[in-house]
Amino acid sequence: MPSIFPKWTNLLPLKLAVAVACLGGAATAGVWYYWTPKYSRVGYQPKQPVAFSHAIHADQLGVDCRYCHSAVERSWFSNIPASSTCMNCHSLLLKEDPKLALVRDSYQSGKSIPWVQLHRTPDFAYFNHSVHVNRGISCVHCHGQINHMEEVFHAKPLSMGFCLDCHRAPEEKIRPVDLVTQLDWAGAVDGKKLVHDWNVKPGQSCSTCHR
Predict the structure, then answer these.
(1) How wide is the angle at C-alpha 77 spanned by C-alphas 60 and 143, nearest 5°?
(2) 3-state secondary structure string, the chain?
(3) Any residues with CB less than 8 A from the CB of 104 and at least 6 apart, and which?
(4) Nearby residues of 116 by Cβ (< 8 Å), 6 or more positions away
(5) How do the domains of the chain map onto residue ranges?
(6) What digits encode the pLDDT tens for the residues 108-122?
(7) pLDDT tens track for 152-186
(8) Is 19 exposed, middle or buried (0-12, 13-18, 19+ CB in 10 A)?
């Protein structure tokens, strides 16, 4: 008796099983990658070409974040300082220290130091440093207590949920603008008043960050 189904249907169950396995594997890999520290990079601490201690510069010496990251108040990104910024001090201080040889070479040659990028916004997300800094959001909320780090590491998840927690309750993180770079500040502030007075209305729609 001839079959009422075409011959290719004999392989349909196998093809469906393979498709389900592939989709299941892709879903598992996506969850594994995007919902774990492998994606959020928490704890990530790459070896940098020059040992730079934020604990010494930002804490012990009290160097303001904006001296090195000079674009943070007016740009979407927080710039890595050029070697010329380093040499403003180190042309006099520790000027023969072998640990700073690469900085001196960079300054003389004009070739950038190959720093390893630590904090990275995904290509599908938009983040503007200046908007946050100029509305009282301190560096520590996204980068952790960086002024106490000998070697900088990725302290916060910087996930969508992490960002939304702040956007939904900015009064819990906001502070006077002149205290943004005072990283150890732990005083009291009327956050709701600052949010009202500065007309802070963080977006929560997809288009706020995904443009």
Answers:
(1) 45
(2) CCCCCCHHHHHHHHHHHHHHHHHHHHHHHHHHHHCCHHHHCCCCCCCCCCCCCHHHHHHHCCCCHHHHCCCCCCCCCCCCCCHHHHHHHHCCCCCCCHHHHHHHHHHHHCCCCCCCCCCCCCCCCCCCHHHHHCCCCCHHHHHCCHHHCCCCCCCCCCCHHHHHHHHHCHHHCCCCHHHCCCCCCCCCCCHHHHHHHCCCCCCCCHHHHCC
(3) 83, 87, 90, 95
(4) 46, 47, 48, 49
(5) 70-80+117-209
(6) 999 999 999 999 888
(7) 999 999 999 999 999 999 999 999 999 999 999 99
(8) exposed
pTM of the model: 0.78
Alpha-carbon distance of 192 to 156, in angstroms, equals 24
Decide: 42 and 156 in contact? Cβ < 8 Å. yes
CA separation for the pair 57, 198 (Å, rounded): 32
Contact 89, 17 (CB under 8 A): no
User: What is the rounded distance in angstroms from the CA atom of residue 108 to the CA atom of residue 165?
Assistant: 45
Residue 33, pLDDT score = 60
CA pair distance 177, 134, nearest whole angstrom: 6
Separation of alpha carbons 180 and 159, rounded Å: 22
Token pair, residue 159, equals: 């996930």
Virtual CA dihedral for 149, 151, 155, 160, nearest 10 degrees?
130
Counting Cβ atoms within 10 Å, is residue 181 exposed (0-12), middle (13-18) or buried (19+)? Answer: buried
